[in-house]
Design brief:
Structural class: alpha/beta
CATH architecture of the largest domain: Alpha-Beta Barrel
Distance between the termini: 59 Å
Strand order of the largest sheet: 3-4-5-6-9-10-11-12-13-14
Oligomer: single chain
CATH superfamily of the largest domain: Aldolase class I
Mean pLDDT: 87
Strand content: 15-25%
Shape: elongated
Largest sheet: 10 strands, mixed
Order of helices and strands: EHHHEEEEEEHEHEHEHEHHEHEHEHH
Radius of gyration: 22 Å
Length: 413
């Protein structure tokens, strides 16, 4: 089977070309043709020797991902559904903004983490994507957008890449790092390390490895100020609790391109959105654990994400006034806090909505239904007496009222 050249970073391509008897500068030329010019046909690579082009025709290909579909939102967001074979499909999303173009890239077909508020996790997990399948999402998006917008090199349509699509990137580490190197390489897409972000739910050993191997911007899916609540929202917290996660974040900053970690926080109505929970986050940022113990102090910013509902979650989006009040507490404490705009929700392209098509190998639906019973969520401490606040969420997440801890008993106060 022909080798897919999208699977190689520059060093890997140079080694492969050496096996063909070619020198490194030929690999650089080939790399530029593929990534800077978007060439998919070796015959078009006119500055390569004919003998090399013949070798490439025999032994290699530039294997793009078949596109199942493309959707465009009223706000300019574009979503592609890519066929990755075996009955699986993954999604990537382009988000145009005034000062940049961002591509949200998937790393797995499905996700094995199983966060309660994530549509992908409810589909389960099929397999990791290869480096070539990760890179192919940017390759297709960048060059199709250039054609549509009439851009010519060195103009770029995409200057910001976030590994925030389907999957947990750090659970596909071997394929992720070469892909990141392609994104960063000046002979490839030439992106700044500050403009490439890996989002993780908290795989602590891999955070440490990424720090050494390819330190880009890091975003951590936090979503709760204490271990009890976070374990019910992000199951990985049982393996890597908050104290360990924050320590890894602090170590990462030694080599990070930015001097802060971004903490992502999905705003769930009556679950994690109380004033007291906001104050608990302020204490965490200052290096104080839930019981008053000293924890690593992590310079950070918070990105509050309005929850994008889907039927299987049983959760609701926090009202806008609650999100703004929550943000104000963080901001008043001197923490940079943003509220993410909801983009592309009319085409199910907003944060947490990417689902694609996954042939699950993990019995996700059964596991998540069982967790809703075994690990009931507890309402956030009430901000003020109001109908429906300060109560158990048993009726909306499937747990039995008789087994639910009283409201506020698990708060981080």
């Amino acid at each position: 089977m022909a080798v897919n050249l999208l699977d190689f970073d520059l060093e890997g391509l140079a080694a492969w070309c050496e096996g063909l008897g070619e020198k490194r500068f030929r690999a650089v030329q080939l790399f530029r043709w593929i990534h800077q010019k978007g060439a998919g046909d070796f015959a078009a690579m006119t500055d390569l020797a004919r003998s090399l082009r013949e070798k490439l025709q025999q032994h290699a290909e530039i294997r793009a991902l078949p596109v199942f579909g493309e959707q465009r939102s009223a706000d300019g967001t574009v979503k592609w559904l890519f066929d990755v074979g075996g009955g699986n499909a993954v999604e990537a999303v382009f988000i145009p903004e005034a000062d940049r173009g961002t591509l949200c890239v998937s790393s797995q077909a499905g996700c094995a983490v199983g966060c309660r508020f994530c549509s992908t996790g409810h589909q389960g997990f099929s397999r990791n994507l290869s480096t070539g399948e990760i890179v192919a999402q940017l390759w297709h998006a960048e060059h199709s957008l250039r054609r549509a917008l009439g851009l010519a090199p060195p103009e770029r349509a995409i200057d910001n890449v976030v590994m925030m699509g389907m999957g947990e990137p750090l659970q596909n580490y071997a394929a992720l790092v070469p892909a990141l190197r392609v994104f960063l390489d000046d002979h490839g897409y030439g992106l700044s390390r500050r403009r490439v972000t890996v989002s993780t739910s908290g795989v602590v050993p891999m955070i440490d490895r990424l720090r050494e191997d390819c330190s880009v911007a890091l975003a951590v899916s936090l979503h709760a100020p204490d271990d009890t609540l976070r374990e019910s929202l992000v199951p990985l917290n049982r393996k890597y609790p908050l104290a360990e996660l924050l320590a890894a974040c602090r170590r990462y900053l030694d080599r990070a391109p930015r001097d802060f970690i971004t903490f992502e926080y999905c705003m769930l109505d009556g679950v994690n959105d109380s004033d007291e929970q906001a104050r608990a986050l302020v204490r965490l940022a200052a290096g104080q654990g839930p019981a008053g113990e000293a924890w690593p102090r992590v310079p950070c910013k918070f990105n509050l994400i309005p929850f994008n509902p889907f039927p299987a979650s049983g959760l609701k989006r926090s009202p806008r006034e609650r999100v703004l009040a929550f943000a104000a507490i963080l901001q008043d404490a001197g923490i940079v806090t943003t509220v993410r705009k909801t983009r592309g929700d009319d085409i199910d392209a907003a944060c947490g909505q990417l689902a694609g098509e996954v042939l699950d190998r993990t019995q996700a639906a059964e596991r998540l239904a069982r967790r809703r019973v075994d690990v009931p969520l507890v309402a956030a401490p009430s901000n003020a007496p109001a109908p429906g606040r300060g109560r158990s969420l048993a009726s909306t997440v499937g747990s039995a009222p008789s087994t639910t801890t009283p409201a506020g008993a698990r708060s981080a106060a």
